[in-house]
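Re-run with default settings, no changes from the original entry. Doing this only to confirm the output is reproducible before filing.
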Amino acid sequence: MSHLRDISKATLRAFQRRDDASRAKVIAALQRWLLPEWRLPDPATAWHSDAFFNAYLDQFGELRRFNAPRRWNLYQLALQTVNIPGDTAECGSFEGASSWLICHTFRETGKTHYIFDSFEGISEPSEKDGGHWSQGMLAHSEEGVRKRLAEFPNLETLAGWIPDRFPDVTDRQFAFVHVDVDLEIPTRDSFEFFYPRLSQGGILVCDDYGSALCPGATETIDNFLADKPEKMVGLSAGGGFMIRRGD
């Protein structure tokens, strides 16, 4: 109780001072009390003031949500591959926020962006996927995704369970691929298909890599890359990526 009284006093002083530094100290004190194992991100980063990126986050209702750092990482990685040969793809689109960012980044390149999604939510989890997921979670309609991405002409949605629609693009090469399917088996199928089709210097990002909620996805990626020259780079905000080396 004494700790709570100290926080209350600090909160009152912070609002009286009306400065961000004082308020940040209050937030840090609350975090230590409520979530002692959680690590606060550094608020003094330039991307927090990026006008384009903030407008994008606001458009998808993510301006004040935890996904923002991961979206920024995705954006920066996509920028690195604008001049790499090949198209772009996403496995697991949900509401289309990541695909919008990818399409915007590659808008002037003429590349086609392919979306692979059942639009019925996630498939049945395996025993390696932990207890967080259940079949049908994160469902969103194909019509809704296409409506949110209507400004981008070079877009194809390929509805179906992974990997059923992958044969539609067996002849394509890819510069940038984003995998966000949460579960072991579709993650494995996505890496097995797209890895050999990544251009040299192309990037494959997995939003679920390293997540405590996605143990199956992390394990299957590490197993897949075990005998390959590339390895995943884990990101502090969540997720990870690999860069395709030349054969």
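The longest strand covers residues 198-206. Residues 50-243 form a domain with the Rossmann fold fold (CATH 3.40.50.150).
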